[in-house]
Design goal:
The complex is a heterodimer of chains A (310) and B (304). Helices cover 67% and strands 0% of the residues of chain A. Chain A is mainly alpha-helical and 310 residues long. Chain A has one domain (72-310): MetI-like (MetI-like fold). Chain A starts with 10 loop residues before the first helix and ends in a 5-residue tail after the last helix. Chain B is mainly alpha-helical. Chain B contains 14 helices and two strands; from the N terminus they run ααββαααααααααααα. Chain B has a two-stranded antiparallel ribbon with strand order 1-2. In chain B, strand 1 and strand 2 form a beta hairpin. The longest helix of chain B is centred in the N-terminal third of the chain and has 34 residues, at 71-104. Chain B is globular. The chains are: A mainly alpha (310), B mainly alpha (304). Chains A and B meet through helix 1, helix 2, helix 4, helix 5 and helix 6 of A and helix 1, helix 2, helix 4, helix 5 and helix 6 of B.
Chain lengths: 310, 304
């Protein structure tokens, strides 16, 4: 699909000057420093989580190499009676939710790009109004409540409430429109139904687009904590981000550590809470780090390669 | 009449032939009707007293009177507007500046490194970001460690009333600088190489090129983004504030959305919370419409 790849606009300049000017050196030093402010806090958290609990309390905020090495923080996190079930819940909600997102988004996008669809303009206007006007949390809470849908206390509340994102739907439509119209026509001429065209023609040709949107949805799902904290009332149903918030942001350490009977009193006393928090944060980041290369590969590849679609 | 009739039959014929398309759309439409239209209908609660069992009883404008006579409201509106201004006006130009600086880096590997690193925070949840920043700004965190090098006193930024809005400003920048600069970086990549070549033949320096070629190319996307942001002016970043707030500094950063959350979910004043939400919604829609028509008059293109 990418025909007119152009070299970075500055290429004309690069070949000529071999030596970097002073301005370039200053600029690069500045940008390197700026990048470090973005990555060092994350690496510091990682280093803290892997450190020996005896040494980690004295660690500075700039240190990115663990002080000693011990996996005790992760052992504690994974033996905790809240973390593992919520981790499973998060994975379940992310997988099922994202599958629902993609099912609805691809089917709606396919219908909405058909030139012959009736009321197309009305439907698009409706969707855009739905995107712009957010009724807020209380009226939605009422819908979820006993008198209306009765979904509070069920994981379906979270799975369903984020079922379609109009913004991603519009992006999906753009990806689908990149599939040459002749291919649709040809398939339709051969007597293929819409579903066949969707699965056999559109899906294979818009793979990269679908992968991108899948990942965006998955990230939103994984990071969601707010509605989960409202609608998932039982601790056994809730997600990792909710527990993480309780522990790291609200500082409720007893809930997390007090219950852990894996450790003797002596060992418990030696725990460095900030290192334990760091380990919990790392557990919540890892899935994002797994998906991140896909973002780089599918969504920002052209930007990073210094070329855009012409 | 005859013409209209034949159009109708044509439409019906089309519906019957392409019914699969409408079946594909149906779940999405149903979703929005259930999870958006029903809540919008529930917004009538702003004019009613809530009851869990019985029907809601009419309350008229009672809750709006409470809002307008509340001394708290003024502070919350001010907080919302100040934080929005910091994000959407003060922080806003830095995304374009970052894109320009990025495009000026001549060493490919460093440019890529900066991109890969700066896009990442956008994908972290605000819970995780708050966790990282609390550690980053703590007394033994990186910022105070650097202050220590200059013999400056350590500051507890997370509980310091004077700093907390800047904490919001910088953490928002930290999260968005890379990702939100992509649109401007793309605009720079789209500049025709012929323009650069012509400028170089004329002996133009980098500074001249940035000033006369790069910046003009960024004006259009900047105006578009600015207009889009105005629609979110009353939002100010709910997820961020909810995770960065604490008792010591809440009065400085309580915004409309966190207030709605705390009086609604926190203390169960559903009608009052809905009334605040309704007012906010209306002002938000008015802002979007106003910017749409202003922009249409000024530039010829609106928001949609």
């Amino acid at each position: 699909m990418r025909k007119n790849i152009r070299p970075l606009a500055h290429k004309g300049f690069t070949g000529k000057r071999k030596r970097l000017s002073l301005g370039q050196v200053v600029l690069m030093a500045f940008m390197l420093l700026l990048s470090l402010t973005m990555i060092v806090p994350v690496l510091n958290i990682l280093a803290r989580s892997l450190s020996d609990p005896d040494l980690s309390p004295g660690m500075g905020g700039l240190r990115i190499i663990p002080a000693g090495f011990d996996l005790i923080n992760f052992k504690l996190v994974f033996s905790n009676k809240y973390i593992m079930p919520t981790l499973r819940n998060s994975i379940y909600i992310t997988v099922v939710g994202t599958a629902l997102n993609i099912f609805l988004t691809t089917s709606a996008a396919y219908a909405l790009i058909q030139p012959k669809l009736l009321f197309k303009k009305t439907i698009m206007t409706f969707l855009i109004i739905m995107m712009l006007f957010d009724p807020g949390i209380i009226p939605e809470y009422m819908v979820m409540g006993k008198r209306q849908l009765n979904l509070i206390g069920s994981q379906w509340s979270i799975i369903l409430v984020y079922a379609v994102n109009v913004y991603y739907l519009i992006i999906m439509m753009r990806y689908f429109q990149e599939v040459p119209a002749e291919l649709y026509e040809a398939a339709r001429m051969d007597g293929a139904g819409h579903l066949t065209v969707l699965f056999r023609v559109v899906f294979p040709l818009a793979k990269a687009g679908i992968a991108t949107i899948t990942m965006f949805y998955a990230v939103v799902r994984w990071n969601e904590y707010f509605k989960a904290s409202i609608y998932l009332t039982k601790a056994s149903q809730t997600t990792l981000q909710v527990i993480l918030r309780q522990f790291v942001v609200l500082g409720d350490t007893t809930a997390l550590v007090g219950m852990s009977n894996m450790m003797s009193y002596n060992e418990l006393a030696q725990i460095d809470y900030s290192a334990l928090k760091a380990a919990t944060i790392i557990v919540a980041i890892v899935p994002i780090l797994i998906l991140y290369p896909l973002v780089l590969r599918f969504y920002t590849r052209d930007v990073i390669a210094g070329s855009v679609k012409g | 009449m005859q013409n209209r009739g034949s159009r109708l039959t044509r439409n019906i014929k089309q519906l019957r032939r392409d019914w699969v398309l409408y079946a594909l759309l149906l779940p999405t439409i149903a979703f929005f009707v259930i999870f958006r239209v029903l809540p919008i209908l529930n917004m009538r609660l702003a004019f009613f007293d809530y009851s869990a069992r019985k029907a809601w009883s009419w309350a008229g404008l009672k809750y709006f009177e409470i809002i307008f006579s509340s001394p708290l409201m003024g502070q919350i509106v001010v907080n919302t507007l100040v934080i929005s201004c910091m994000k959407y006006i003060l922080l806003f130009p830095f995304f374009a500046i970052f894109a320009i600086l990025l495009s000026e880096i001549r060493v490919g590997i460093l440019r890529k490194f900066t991109q890969v690193v700066s896009y990442l925070p956008h994908f972290l949840s605000w819970v995780v970001i708050a966790g990282i920043w609390i550690s980053f700004l703590a007394r033994d965190g990186a910022v105070n460690e650097i202050r220590g090098l200059f013999n400056a006193q350590a500051i507890d930024y997370m509980t310091d009333k004077g700093s907390i809005r800047w904490v919001l400003f910088f953490s928002e920048g930290w999260r968005s600088l890379g990702w939100d600069s992509i649109i401007y970086f793309t605009a720079i990549l789209n500049i025709s190489p012929a323009l650069y070549e012509a400028a170089e033949i004329d002996g133009a320096g980098r500074f001249f090129i940035v000033l006369h070629i790069v910046i003009p190319a960024l004006i259009t996307p900047m105006v578009t983004m600015f207009i889009l942001n105005l629609g979110f002016f009353l939002n100010a970043g709910f997820d961020q504030v909810l995770n960065f707030t604490n008792a010591a500094i809440n009065s400085r950063i309580e915004i409309l959305d966190t207030y709605i959350y705390s009086i609604g979910i926190g203390s169960g004043q559903y009608s009052l919370a809905t009334a605040v939400g309704l007012l906010k919604g209306f002002i938000g829609v008015a802002l979007v419409l106003a910017t749409h028509f202003t922009s249409k008059r000024l530039t010829g293109t609106g928001v949609w």
